[in-house]
Design goal:
With about 350 residues, the chain is of the alpha/beta class. It has 15 helices and twelve strands. It has a five-stranded parallel beta sheet, sandwiched between helices. Helix 3 (about 70-85) runs parallel beside helix 7 (about 175-195). The longest helix has 28 residues, at about 15-40. The protein starts with 13 loop residues before the first helix and ends with a helix.
Length: about 350
């Protein structure tokens, strides 16, 4: 179906549309070729870069990765710093021009400098380079010219292939910045894997938004301790109802003499058995057996999906070892919804 035309959409000739698509495809094709060449060119210098960054944070050290670049390289440097920080490697961006006017004070001898410059001769980086050499701060250079000032000064040099820019004049940073960005991602991911960075740690750094919500565990939301509504199987329903009312979770877990969960009494169970003898009955006579359960380490989103599927509003949470079926918490659907899960 052809797109509906509006007064905001210019009429493009077929010839122009063909040229536009060809330009876009050329940009993406050149970027793909450049990334393939970059991947093939990676060598021991990449491993050295990882070692240098990790050494700044080992044995109680608190060194950070200071990323810097000018112009479009600076924009890429900001993104690399953000990616490193969010994946367990403390990092931040320092503007090279501002560094010459006092921001050098933010760089300590424990840090590692990562500098980006396509040609490696960016004038604004000179004071940062000088400062790094004077203070013996490890310097990782990312550039395409191995003979450049930056790469000659660097303790570790990550050389970018001399791929042509996609700009028709060969001037605007396009292919070059794509390679820089991807190389920064490669460093961040390799560092994550070296450190064994976990999804729980990732969630801690991303408490807001869909990423944080997607990684919430049952243990983060469940009710525990004094809030855990439990009753023995031989408890009379008069006492069970008091426990249910005080807990305000609409349920009571029924346990045997060993403390194992054997059933659950919910509002629905009470309604199904309501009569003049209800309060005299035992929990075992009213409960629903083999209730659905969750585990502390389970994703809360998964537990919510189970509740929606079974049309229930609570899940008792058992200890990680299912053998004992010992309840350690209870998760209510409202807890999930309050946390932003859907």
């Amino acid at each position: 179906m052809a797109p509906r035309k509006t007064h905001l959409q210019p009429v493009t000739s077929e010839a122009q549309a063909k040229d536009d698509l060809a330009a876009a495809q050329r940009v993406l094709s050149q970027a793909s070729d450049a990334l393939t060449a970059l991947a093939a060119a990676l060598d021991g210098q990449f491993i050295r870069a990882l070692d240098v960054i990790l050494a700044a944070q080992e044995n109680g050290k608190s060194g950070r990765v200071i990323v810097s670049g000018m112009g479009k390289s600076g924009h890429i440097a900001r993104k690399i710093a953000a990616t490193l920080s969010s994946t367990g490697t403390p990092a931040y961006f320092v503007h090279p021009a501002e560094a010459s006017h006092g921001d050098l004070g933010a760089v300590t001898r424990d840090d590692v400098l990562v500098m980006l410059s396509w040609g490696g001769e960016t004038a604004e980086l000179s004071n940062l380079i000088t400062y790094a050499k004077r203070c013996r701060i490890p310097l990782i250079g990312i550039a395409s010219n191995p003979q450049s000032t930056l790469m000659q000064a660097a303790d570790v040099g990550l050389l970018l292939p001399r791929a042509p820019e996609a700009c028709p004049m060969g001037l605007a940073p396009t292919t070059s910045t794509t390679m820089m960005l991807s190389l920064g991602d490669a460093l961040a991911v390799a560092l994550m894997e070296r450190k064994g960075f976990s999804s729980d740690q990732y969630r801690d750094f991303h408490p807001g938004g869909s990423l944080g919500r997607a990684l919430i565990r049952v243990s983060d939301l469940m009710h525990t301790g004094a809030e855990l509504p439990l009753a023995r199987e031989n408890s009379v329903m008069a006492d069970v109802l008091l426990t249910m009312a005080s807990g305000r979770l609409g349920c009571v877990g029924v346990v045997d003499a060993s403390g194992a969960l054997i059933g659950i009494v919910t509002d629905g169970d009470v309604r199904r058995h309501i009569d003049s003898d209800l309060k005299a009955r035992t929990a075992a006579q009213v409960m629903s057996r083999s209730p659905k359960i969750a585990h502390p380490g389970q994703l809360a989103a998964e537990a919510l999906a189970l509740m929606n599927e079974m049309k229930i509003t609570q899940l008792f949470v058992l200890d990680a070892d299912d053998a004992g079926r010992l309840p350690v918490g209870v998760l209510h659907i409202h807890d999930c919804l309050s946390a932003g899960l859907q």
